[in-house]
Design goal:
The protein is built from five helices and five strands, in the order ααββββαβαα. The chain is α+β, with helices and mostly antiparallel strands. Bound molecules: zinc ion.
Length: 162
Amino acid sequence: MLPVDERTIRASFLNASRKEAASLTLPAGFDDLDVDALDFLGWSDPKMPRRAYVVAQDEAGDTVAVLLQQAEQRTLARAQCSWCDDVTLRNDVQFFAARKAGAAGRRGDVLGTLICTNFACSANVRRLPPLAYEGYDRGAARDLRILRLQEHVQGFLRELRG
Ligand SMILES: [Zn+2]
C-alpha cells in the first residue's frame, strides 16, 4: 500500500462519523510502518478494544478508511479468513461488522466479514506456501496470493460503498 498519514486516515473514513474518526487512536509503531509489506493497514483501537480500523487504497488509488466493530464472539480458531482466503493457512480469525457507507449505513445496514486476528493477512500471504509438487513455483503462488488479498480488500470496499 501507499504511505498514509494520520490526517489522511481521519479524513478518509467511508463509514464513520466525524466524532468517531476524531477519537481513533493510531496503532503502536505507526511511524515505523513498512507499507511495502502491507496490502492494507488494520488494527484494533488500543483504547476501545471492540473498535477496529482498516485503511487501504481503493481501485482508484484513493486512501480509504473503514470503521469495524468486533463481534462479541471470541476468536474462531482455524476458520478461514475472507481476505487471505486460504484453507491451508488455518489462522485464527475474528468476526467484524462494518456499517455500510452513506444512506444504507444510516438505515443500519452492516457488512460482516471474517478477518485474521491482528489483521495479519499481509504477512500471511507473504509467507512462501509449501511445495505442492516437484517444480511448483512457490514464488509465483505467493505473488498470486498477494494479488488475491488486494482484490478481496478492494471487493470489500466496493461492497461497503454499495
Ligand atoms: Zn487474513
